[in-house]
Amino acid sequence: MALHFTSEQRLDDGVLERAFTLGEIPGILWTPASAPAPLILLGHPPLGLQKMYPRLVARARHAAADGFAAATIELPGSGDRPRWAAAEQARDDLRRTMEAGEPVSDETIDALVLPLVDKAVPEWQAALDALLSLPEIGGPVGYSGGVISIGVRLAVVEPRISAAAFFAGSFVPRAMFEEARQVTIPLHVLLQWDDEGNDRQAALDLFDAFGSKEKSLHANMGGHTGVPQFAGDVAAQFFTRHLK
Q: Model-level pTM greater than 0.85?
């Protein structure tokens, strides 16, 4: 798949922001003035790039200030990409279950997450192929945030990713615990202790399952959106340690 830049703007801190398409997949690349730069892939929930943009650009500017390029792509069925009926059905089932105050079944979690992982991971790999061919991008590569199961799969199948920071804030299918045991790269996992939609024990069990020799878990009090500012700084130090 060929990467085509569709727009560019220089942000006020000197970061170059370029929108691109990779086949039918929209994405955004942010590069610092210093090139070639190591690359951080910015994961995000399937809410659409437009909706996620303010948070993504803040993360990208933080990365650029540390000398990293950052890139993200639209997830399957999100944003302006073609609707994906099965994914919408799974999201509706989840919403109904949670509104009824019932426990979320393994079947619902599998239907919600596993097809997304199967579709999204090859697209991230295709994006990585294209991005690493650009002269302004050097190695190594890190993966940050987003749906944790996508990050787990990427960490297992993509040898070019040498460190990852995960946010333990999404449902994890049981099958992903097996994959977690195969993860060996350095990991930094962020957990919000009182995350309303997250099974804390499942997050702790997943962390326990990771096969990495170097892994750290940073837990903070507060809900899903209450991540303290300094938590971002700690994650940034993690990437500087492993990608510089």
A: yes
